[in-house]
Amino acid sequence: MNEVFTFLGVISHNHNYLIVAHSLLVAALVIWFAKSATGALQVVPRGAQNVAEAYLEGVLAMGKDVIGEKNARKYLPLVATIGLVVLVANVIGIIPGFESPTGNINFTLALALLVFLYYNFEGIRKNGVISYFKHFMGPEPWLAPLMFPIEIVSHLSRIISLSFRLFGNIKGDDLFLAVILMLAPFVAPLAPFALLTFSALLQAFIFMILTYVYLAGAVSLHEESL
Length: 226
Prior knowledge:
Blueprint: H1 15-38, H2 47-67, H3 69-74, H4 76-92, H5 105-127, H6 129-134, H7 144-183, H8 190-224
Helix pairs in contact: 1-2, 1-4, 2-8, 4-8, 5-7, 5-8, 7-8
């Protein structure tokens, strides 16, 4: 969004630079939050530790309903980190002078590929290569020529689903905010900002729940066979 002022754009207006710079800013904010929450742990949590514990408990509760408590705890670091990165990346775009990295398809595609590769890796590690891909062939051997290509396309489409859903929603929010700021740059209505904040939270939640769902589908074969 080169037509909108950004603080980091003072250095350069190159869009690739802006995306990388804002991505590094998001990473720095997430690391800073993590350090603040774990720097001086207390029995009675305060400040950042209190927020972090509430966030992790919420993510864990969400995962229990999808993949069970044991696996929810196992994959909590991955899902919680991705969720925090997506949330911060979404929210900074609401602040005038910053741009959402999630409004760029390259950023969301990288996250989607990370999830795709990891849940397939976990599925193969838990079940073995043959058992994992055998599940793609359907319940009956004669269905294999039909089911296997469908399953492959279905799994590949998850990359598109994860990346384009997040990208499309945040890009639309950025464009909406740009219009609002151009029409009322000094007295921007509070309602649109509340709506955009809710959208940022919702998109982070959807990304996390889908990650848990894909992991559940990949590792459940192993547990069903026990």
